[in-house]
Amino acid sequence: MPHDISVIGYDDSTLIAFTDPPLTTIRQRVLSMGEATVEALVDKIAGNGASRSEYGFRPELIVRASTGACRLRQPRVSSRRSPGRGGRGAAEGSRRHR
């Protein structure tokens, strides 16, 4: 890794940075998510309406050594010869003119 394959983890646990190679990961704002959840639960228990029905939390990409740059694929070269005049193959057409 990362020459042949790239690996990405999720949640960025504390030990992930110490793997070999260190793992690229998606970090979530767990503390903010927990605070919003507790606040919504306390509001619900108190009989208050929910302030929001949906919460958005922006994840963060933490790039480490388990990922590399994307390699571009080389165009495939066909082994078939393209047709010449009259629907004949290129080799066949060249024999005719010798």
Estimated share of beta-strand residues = 5-15%
Instruction: Please describe the biggest sheet, giving its number of strands, its sense, and whether it closes into a barrel.
Output: 3 strands, mixed
Q: How helix-rich are the residues, as a percent range?
A: 10-25%
Overall geometry comes to: elongated
Poorly predicted spans: 89-98
Please give the domain count: 1
How many E strands? Answer: 3
Secondary-structure element order, N to C? EEHEH
Structure class:
alpha+beta
Oligomer type: single chain
Mean pLDDT over the full residue set: 78
Distance between the termini: 54 Å
Question: How do the strands of the widest beta sheet line up side by side?
Answer: 1-2-3
* Total of helices: 2
Q: What value does the Rg take, in angstroms?
A: 29 Å
Give a brief rundown of this model:
This protein is 23% helix and 10% strand. The chain is built from 2 helices and 3 strands; from the N terminus they run ββαβα. A 3-stranded mixed β-sheet has the order 1-2-3, with no helix packed on it.
